[in-house]
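Dear Dr. H.,

I hope your travels went smoothly. While you were away I took the liberty of generating a structure for the chain from your last submission, since the lab meeting agenda had it listed for discussion. I wanted you to have the full record in hand beforehand rather than looking at slides cold. The sequence, exactly as received, is reproduced here:
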Amino acid sequence: MIKKIDIAVLFFLLCCLMVGSGFFGSLLLDYLNPLLAQTLFTIIIGLVPFLYSLIRRIPFSDFIAPGVFSWKLFFASILTMFGTIICSLFLALVSVMLFRNIDVGSYFTLEEIIGGTSLPCVLVVIAVLPAICEEIVFRGFILRGLKNNISSRKLSRSVIAVGLCALMFAVLHMDPIRFLSTLLAGIVLSYVGYITGSLVIPMVMHFFNNGLAAVCVWYMIKISDSCLYQDLQGDMSPMIGIMDSRLLPGILSVLCVFLSSGSLFLFSGLYLIKKEMAKCNKQKQESLSEEVSVDGGDAG
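The corresponding predicted structure, in token form, is as follows:
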């Protein structure tokens, strides 16, 4: 069983890994291209809970059991993540205003990873691997560990487990510009993982989020020869200039429309997920009742 100390130690190890990635990442680039370096780093993150569990003798089934899945949950999760992405656009622009003077360095950029790479390879590295590896870590090991170890009289177990898991998820990305949007994604993924008990559904949502971003950037680079992306990635002053101009009221109005529509998709998806889970739980209880009645009849 995963204990609180296991969660704390794993989080510490991941923090050390993320901090060290800046140094070791620059060394890796002397031997590997950014795509292979990113692939290796993502796989290492996914291996950490398995290696730690071997040392602590924690059964893998405690954090990699896939849980429930249905096509209704699948489509509801896509709707939920689509709304989350729209809301994240609003939060991303807020973050640009809050952290406009912060220089966020990286040993390689998303453009360097994607540039000159086929779209299937991009989706594997940017969407498939992070969806599997990061969800095993956060919605598998950390969230399920928190769910089984938290007891509080002031706040519900779900609020604490979801909140802590989402906060760890955002902190470990170590990107101030994307902190708010990553935190929102972490809250949604953790909440869906909590109420469904599924690891597959958060993986689907994570893949959709990263995959959509990867496809947009890939086509942006292909169509505009990366000029637009370089402007947005390297110099935020045009966007900040717009925010400081007299167009601000109109821009905020558009953003409010985005936020409202995103919230509608987000909460509609969550409603459908909860409705489907209530149906699944009811069917499970009915099947258990039938089994009990059959066993009772056989005993009689």
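Two observations you may find useful: The first helix runs from residue 4 to 28. Residues 4-283 form one domain.

With kind regards,
E. W.
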